[in-house]
Amino acid sequence: MTTTAQQLASGASRHSLGRGLAGQALLAVEQARTDQGSWARAHEQIMRMTNTPVAAHLMNSLFEGAPAVAYVLTAADQPTYRPALRTLDCHIDGLTRERLRRAHQRIDGRQLPALREFDLISGLTGLGVYQLRRHHGGELLDAILRYLVRLCEPVRDLPGWWTANDTADHPSTSWPGGHGNLGIAHGISGPLALLSIAAQHGHLIPGQTDAIQTICSWLDHWQQDTWWPGTITKHEHDSDQLQQAGPQRPSWCYGTPGIARAQQLAGLALADRTRQHRAETALLNCVTDDIQHAQLGDTTLCHGWSGLLQATIRAADDAAPGGPLTRQLPDLRRRQEILVESRTSQHRPELLEGSTGIQLVQLSAMSTTNAMQAWDACLLLSS
Predict the structure, then answer these.
(1) What range defines the domain where residue 66 resides?
(2) How many Cβ atoms are within 10 Å of 34's Cβ, its own excluded?
(3) Which CATH number belongs to the domain containing residue 198 in this structure?
(4) Segment 270-288, tens digit of pLDDT
(5) Residue 302 assigned to a binding site
(6) Is the pTM of this model over 0.90?
(7) Residue 152 assigned to a binding site
C-alpha cells in the first residue's frame, strides 16, 4: 500500500503548473473554453491531476501544489469543482498568511529577501495572482499588496527587492553582494505587473501608486535604449554602470518582452501614456530585431518564441488598435508555427518549457475571447 508521504511525492509533478499535469489540465480547460476541445476531456485531465493527495505547505506557490491545482479549477469555473476549491482555499489562505508573516518579520529585521519570498513563480506575487483570479480582490489580496508596497522600501542602501543570492536563489561566491533581478518570472517586474493589474481593476491601497512609480524609476534607470538587462550585479549597482554590451535573449521570463509588458501595464495603471508608449516601442524593437531573435534557442513559452509571441499578443491588445504591434503578429505567428513544426519531437508536455505552453499560445493567437478570462494570468500577461 502506498503511504501518504509517497503519494505526496509522486503527486508533486501532477500538481505542478509549470512542469506537470496541472499545466496539461489548464490546456484542456482552455481548449474547452475556446471551443477547441470538450469539457469532458477537460474533466478527465482534472481528475488525472487530482487523483493523488494535493500538498498544501509553505513551499507551495502559484506554480506548485494546492495553489496550482486551485488555479486550474478556478479557470475551469464549473460548479462541480466549487467544494474542492473551498477546501483548497482554506489551506492556501493559511499558507499565504504565514508567508506574509515571515516576510514582514524579515523586513522588520532589515534583511534582504530571497527571490522565492516575493517572485511570481515561487513567491507572494504568484499567490497574489491567485487571490485576484479566484476572489477578484479581498482581504488577502490587499495584504499581499501591502507587503509589495513594503518590499519597495530600501534596505541598506539597496532596493528592497535586492537579494543576497544568485539567480538560482542560492548563496554563491560567483555573485558577491547578490543581485537585482528585473525579470517578470523571478524579479521585480512580477510585483510591478501585479500592482498595476490590481490597480486597473480598482484594488488600490495606500502607497501602491508610489510603489509602482518606485519600481518603474529603477527599471528606467537601467533601461538601455529599448531593452533591459535581466539582472544587475552588486558591482554594476555600486559603479552605476552596466557591463552587458547588448540585449540578452528576448524571453518572457527574464527578457525585454516580460519587462516591457509589465511597464506597459504600469503605464495603463498610472494613466501615463508616455510610459506606455515607451514600453510598446521597446517591445516593437525587440519583435523586429533579428539579432535579438537569433538568441532564441527554442520555441517554448518561458525561454523561446512562444513567450515572445504571447507577450506581444497581450501588449497589442492594450496598444492602439491596428498599431505596429498588431501588424507584427501575423509574421510572428508564422515564424513560431514553422519552428514548432520543425521541432515537435523535442517538446515535453510541459507549460513553461514544452508543448503544453506552445499549444496554449497557439490558442491565444487564434482566440477572440476576453483576456482577463484567459489562461496567462499566471504569467502576468493578462490585464
Answers:
(1) 2-379
(2) 17
(3) 1.50.10.20
(4) 999 999 999 999 999 999 9
(5) yes
(6) yes
(7) no
